[in-house]
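Exercise: predict the fold of this chain.
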Amino acid sequence: MQLPSALTLTTLLTSFAMSARAVYPPPNDYIMSMGLDWANNYLSVYNSKGEDAFRWYKDYRRIRGSSSTTLADGSSRPLFKLESTTDSCRHNKRFLQYKGNTWAERDYRLQLRDHRADMWHFNYPDKSGIRRYYRFNKNSSNMGGRIYRVARGQKDVLEGLLRTNVRYDKWWNDPKGRNTFTLSIVDEAPVPEMVMLMALVLEHSILCRGT
């Protein structure tokens, strides 16, 4: 059963505050500035202290729909790369990571739905080799939404929230606040995989707005 979005957000953020001893902002926030500024050849993903936690690289190839997407750590060390041949607006998208295998190590999919909000899915193998599955239910009115861990025969488990907001963290050096896209996750959530989802959602929402 899915809780109403306002209650879900309050419950999730409250649990973060409790686990962080009521320190705000919670340590499990990852933040991207709204927009696609490629001045550094990557998009920064900041932690709650304003440090580069991750860097997101995108190579748009000449062949329509063909792209390469890389997530790196804060020092630009690559963590994993996704390839796509369907990376264009108005079409369902799929991003795959292959590591010398015939099957995908990581698999991200965008499902476009007529007259309803988009839905994203991704899966990956955890450290024990068990494949974990996630679903992102996008809001109908904005690019935010809820991220659930899903498993057949089990209840969906809320592990993350994506939301647009204006942040006033001191490290922005912006008294008017900064428009951002923020990922908030529980301790057990897979951080790199969630961050990759956030960046893909941000990019698609901006590039394909109105299409």
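Check your answer against the key: Helices lie at 5-19, 191-207.
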